[in-house]
Amino acid sequence: MSHSSITSQQIEHLAKLSRLELSEQDLEQYKEDLGRILEHVSAIQSLDLAGVEGMARPHQATNQLDPDEPTPPLEQACLLGLAPVVEGPFIAVPKVLDEGSA
Amino acid sequence: MNSEQAQDLTSRVEAIRTGEITAEASLDATLERIDARNGELNAFHETLAPRARTRAALIDEKIKNGSDPGPLAGATIALKDNICTRDGRTTCSSRMLEEYVSPFDATVVERIEAAGGIAIGKTNLDEFAMGSSSEHCAWGVVRNPADPTRVPGGSSGGSAVAVAANLADAALGSDTGGSIRQPAALCGVVGFKPTYGRISRWGLVAFGSSLDQIGPLTQSVRDAALLYRVLAGADPRDSTTSQREVDEVPIASNAETKGLRVGVQRIHNHADNAEAVNTALSHAIDAFREAGAEIVDIALPNAEHGISTYYVIAPAEASSNLARYDGIRYGYRSASVPGDSLDSLYARTRGEGFGPEVRRRIMLGTFLLSSGYHDAYYLQALKVRRLIKNAYDDAFKKCDVLLGPTTPAPAFEIGATNDPLSMYLNDIYTVNANITGNCAMSVPVGHTKVNGALLPIGLQLQAQAFNETTLFRAGVALESMGDLL
């Protein structure tokens, strides 16, 4: 399955998935760029990989767990100081819930 | 060694420890040089002068009292601006983090200071470490001191320039597909990427979590070895760090080259390389042979799929890692508009906060992980990753180190590479060390004259994961051969 060209519909869908607002010009440019990049990386699709186990990270290791001891957290004032819009001890965001829905 | 450097970090620390110069005087001189040259080169986004002065005073106090100031006593270290510091900002050269002040220091910063080193400033990079030229920097392009019309390489361009122009005794960068080694080669300094898991990523802003490593850029191989010993070792805050004992990498000036098996890959796309790169490699092979090394012909099946594999895995991981930049809890938030929903706030914030290359890679990564393509691309790439790892493991049964080019060519002109795919091909020799998790180093080997400027050339050594001892042994040997062009 080779995908060396991307449709405008696909690009718009990707922008939505990526939560990126892009101009018409950007959408056109990325359509072209992604098409060319995918054409190049599609080389790996023709390889015989039967029986090969995928490698997500180098030197598979078992998970390291910390001892179950509480440690001091970062200070609330410090973290609130990083937030763009603050109201009292809260971070302000646009309305999340529609009227009448859960 | 390049023409601008005075003494290397090891000599500088020696001078400070013996009282030849105070840490404060050394720091002041460095800050003056930054003042003089940073306007032109744009290596630093900001300096950390107050913090640095406090540390310098502490070091001088310790020396006066006769207590041990540490192995990095008074050495100035520049930090790539994707490494978190509680002072100054950590911007990743992105509008998304323009005002971000980290609530904590990265582990590597803590270890540098515990060893007596002085964090002197934050250096510019390609935004979020995505790039090979340091042109994708929200605070302006970084310029190569060898020829300011040319790129220093990337993404750790600012760090490479800081060392090359003697604006710091050493620098830290990060390497995901070559981002330490490639700028090191283009600027004429040493650049070292440790084995994956050797140096803690706690406090390194994540790009590709299975690929990223922090490493030093230095004037000499012995400096890189010193920094490796200071920084390496398990960190409970980064569960991908290895529990294995850190080796005592020897930094003998007369490296034992007799009997070292130096592997050279048979096919290197020689025709596509700049002539100077091929000449340097050929001379290095001769020099190793003369010094008593055994040159071994190595085939690396599937290694040629490194770029394709990398440009599937890295953008995929990046799209996931950069999902956190949503304008809510920290960083840039787009000005609200009437009728804003969370989704529209996210989309505008990310569209405005991220630069074009970052947006491109997020889109690419999202595609590669999306339903219908995830198996064909991402899972497929993980299998090719396994094949590449196997190929290098086999190679390292036949040789101790691999020797080859770091980059296909010396530094290119700013603005010359507009096509993303062409830019990605700059990483052709470096990506496999990240894909496999092996350790690798670029060592400067001379210069080539291009349009009246002397452009640095570097060669790359690679060794099996956790075999830093052999890598540094070969690195010292290569460095001792001097100018190979």
Short description:
With 102 residues, chain A is mainly α. Chain A contains 3 helices and 2 strands; from the N terminus they run αααββ. Chain A is 34% helix and 4% strand.
Features:
heterodimer, A: 102 residues, mainly alpha, two-stranded antiparallel ribbon, flat, B: 485 residues, 11 strands, globular, disordered N terminus
Structure commentary:
The complex is a heterodimer of chains A (102) and B (485). Chain A is mainly alpha-helical. Chain A is 34% helix and 4% strand. Chain A has helices spanning 8-17, 24-41, 76-82; strands at 86-87, 90-91. In chain A, β1 and β2 (90-91) form a beta hairpin. In chain A, α1 crosses α2. Chain A is flat, with a radius of gyration of 23 Å. Chain A starts with 7 loop residues before the first helix and ends in an 11-residue tail after the last strand. By secondary structure, chain B is α/β, with parallel strands linked by helices. In chain B, 38% of the residues lie in helices and 14% in strands. Chain B has helices at residues 9-17, 23-41, 49-65, 107-114, 157-164, 181-187, 221-231, 275-290, 306-321, 342-353, 356-369, 375-398, 420-424, 431-436, 468-480, and strands at residues 44-47, 76-80, 118-123, 170-175, 190-193, 213-218, 261-265, 294-298, 401-405, 439-450, 453-463. In chain B, strands 1-3-2-4-6-5-10-11-9-7-8 form an eleven-stranded mixed sheet, with helices on both faces. In chain B, β2 (76-80), α4 and β3 form a beta-alpha-beta unit. Chain B is globular, with a radius of gyration of 21 Å. At the A-B interface, α1, α2 and α3 of A face α9, α10, α11, α12 and α13 of B.
